[in-house]
Design brief:
The complex is a heterodimer. By secondary structure, chain A is mainly alpha-helical. In chain A, about 65% of the residues lie in helices and about 5% in strands. About 0% of the residues of chain B have low confidence. The two termini of chain B are about 25 Å apart. The chains are: A mainly alpha, B alpha/beta. Strand 1 of chain A pairs antiparallel with strand 8 of chain B, so a sheet runs across the interface.
Chain lengths: ~45, ~280
């Protein structure tokens, strides 16, 4: 419920969404690097 | 506010239910006509098998809860119409595709939000507040466990992109910074195309570490996270929505006689009531 409320308020222009596209992309950057690390078997810079 | 839902599988059903409760649901889309029809009739809204038909009804916004490999193209179609969109995590199947989508939304100047349900969990909000107030001290390390049995809903990604992304998001949020390095071990224990278990270590600036355990191999569901801080230890259970803070701030004591110090004098434990309902 809170997630949808946040989105509705963001669409109304009351505030930015708690997780916007750029924020979601930054988490993608980390999980992509984690999977690369798992495949390579070594530490990866993000 | 009129909001449509694209994809009414397990997560999309939740979107439709919640938006209906809020009085905002305007229509649903699913490539499977039976599923679209069932959900549309259940909530008393129009149902479609194409996004184009939903957009022709000019909703104020749309949520997308389809398989991850369809997110970017569907979202671009919605954004192109000037309609705000919230896409379920992961927003794409790769970082390059995620960047492509963010740039597309920026250029169109259309709102793009990402569905990261745990960020909205009251235990996370309360923990963030505790950290900001400073009483817990500095974060030293964060540990999370997110395990359960294999979900039949997932066919296009491994457990890192499906589950670990939640804790990555929460850790980034709580630390307030981006990890610089990562080391992960894992693989497909059940010989699948993607990994079904992984242990991940994140290195944040300032020496803060994050340790994540995720798998689809455990017969019961665990969703927990704990923070070791310089003053307090914070444990959260996402499912029970419980938050327990244990403080080990010692009172003044005689170091020559440690055995006489009652434990309760040195450990303060309390549960923060964070249930939102």
């Amino acid at each position: 419920m809170k997630e949808m409320q946040d989105f509705v308020e963001a669409v109304k222009g009351e505030h930015p969404p708690l997780v916007d596209g750029r924020d979601g992309m930054l988490s993608m950057k980390v999980v992509d690097a984690a999977r690369r690390s798992m495949i390579k078997g070594k530490e990866v810079s993000i | 506010m009129r909001i449509g839902v694209v994809g009414v599988g397990s997560m999309g059903q939740n979107h439709a239910r919640v938006l209906d409760q809020m009085g905002c649901l305007s229509g649903v889309v699913d490539s499977k006509i039976d599923r679209a029809k069932k959900t549309g009739k259940k909530h008393g809204v129009p149902y479609h098998t194409s996004v184009k038909d939903l957009l022709s009804m000019e909703p104020d916004a749309v949520t997308v809860a389809t398989p991850a490999n369809t997110h970017v193209e569907l979202c671009k179609e919605i954004i192109e119409s000037g309609t705000a969109v919230m896409v379920e995590k992961p927003m794409a199947i790769s970082l390059d595709k995620a960047k492509e989508l963010v740039n597309f939304a920026d250029e169109a100047d259309v709102l793009l939000a990402v569905g990261m349900i745990e960020r909205h969990n009251p235990v996370v909000t309360s923990t963030k507040k505790l950290l900001e107030e400073g009483d817990a001290g500095d974060v030293i390390t964060i540990s999370s466990k997110r395990v359960s049995s294999f979900p039949t809903r997932v066919a296009d990604m491994g457990v890192i992109h499906d589950l670990a992304i939640h804790d990555v998001d929460v850790m980034r949020y709580l630390v307030g910074d981006e990890p610089e390095r990562v080391f992960a071990l894992g693989g497909p224990a059940n010989q699948g195309k993607y990994e079904d278990h992984a242990n991940i270590m994140l290195y944040f600036p300032g020496g803060i570490t994050g340790v994540l355990e995720v798998n689809w191999l455990t017969p019961h569901k665990v969703r927990s996270l704990s923070l070791t801080c310089s003053k307090d230890f914070i444990e959260i259970d996402y499912i029970a929505q419980s938050l327990v803070v244990t403080s080990s701030r010692l009172l003044e004591y005689d170091t020559s006689n440690l055995f006489d110090i009652p434990l309760e004098h040195n450990i303060r434990k309390y549960t923060v009531n964070v249930r939102s309902h």
